[in-house]
Design a protein that fits this description.
Number of domains: 2
CATH class of the largest domain: Alpha Beta
Distance between the termini: 55 Å
Helix content: 25-40%
Largest sheet: 5 strands, mixed
Length: 182
C-alpha cells in the first residue's frame, strides 16, 4: 500500500463506506517513513487511517468513538512509534473511545521500538501510562527500567549528561520528593 493513498483519521467521514465492517489500522503518519516494510506488512488487507496528534487535533477519542458507532469496524489496530509523546495519545484515544461507547472493542495496541521491532502493548499499560504517580511507583520498585530507557531514549541520555540522573532515594528506598518551590 502506498502511504500517499491513505486518508487521515481526522479528515475521514465517520460513515465512510471504507470503514464499514473494516479491519481498521490507525497508524502514526510517520510509520511509512520510519519503516516502510513494517508499514506494508501491517497495512496488508486493512483500511488504513493516518493520524498525527502533532499535526491534527489531539481529540481523536471522539472521532474513533463516532466511527465505531457509525461504521462498526470489525477490528481496530493502533500502531505508533514507541517513545513519541504525542503518538501515545492515539492509544489512549482508542481506550477512551471504548469507555465513551461503554462497550468492549476488538482492538490491539502496538508500538514500533526504535522503528524496527513491533511490540504488542496491553490496553492496561496505556491506562497506567496516564497516571504518572503509578508509573513513578513502579519505577521506584524497578530501577532497572532506567537501564533500558537509557538504551532507547536520546532525551534520557541527554538528561543524564546534564546531571538529571536517576531520582535520589531516601534511606527507605523511596524517591525523595520536594514540594513545588521548596
Amino acid at each position: 500500500m502506498e502511504c500517499g493513498a491513505c486518508p487521515w483519521l481526522w479528515s475521514t467521514w465517520v460513515k465512510a463506506p471504507i470503514l464499514r465492517g473494516s479491519d481498521l489500522l490507525i497508524a502514526s503518519a510517520c510509520l511509512p517513513f520510519v519503516n516502510p516494510e513494517l508499514f506494508r506488512r501491517l497495512a496488508e488487507g486493512k483500511t488504513v487511517l493516518f493520524a498525527c496528534p502533532e499535526r491534527e487535533s489531539p481529540t481523536h477519542y471522539g472521532k474513533i468513538a463516532s466511527m465505531v458507532r457509525s461504521s462498526r469496524p470489525r477490528r481496530i489496530t493502533v500502531v505508533t512509534i514507541d517513545g513519541s509523546p504525542h503518538c501515545y495519545t492515539l492509544h489512549a484515544s482508542a481506550n477512551e473511545a471504548e469507555y465513551i461507547l461503554g462497550e468492549k472493542l476488538n482492538k490491539e495496541h502496538f508500538v514500533a521500538v526504535n522503528g524496527r521491532e513491533l511490540v504488542r502493548i496491553s490496553p492496561n499499560a496505556v491506562r497506567v501510562a496516564r497516571y504518572l504517580s503509578l508509573v513513578n511507583e513502579m519505577l521506584e520498585k524497578n530501577q532497572e527500567v532506567l537501564k533500558k530507557l537509557e538504551e532507547l531514549s536520546k532525551e534520557y541520555r541527554a538528561a543524564l549528561d546534564l546531571g538529571d540522573g536517576p531520582a535520589a532515594t531516601d534511606e527507605g528506598g523511596s524517591v525523595a520528593a520536594k514540594a513545588p518551590g521548596g
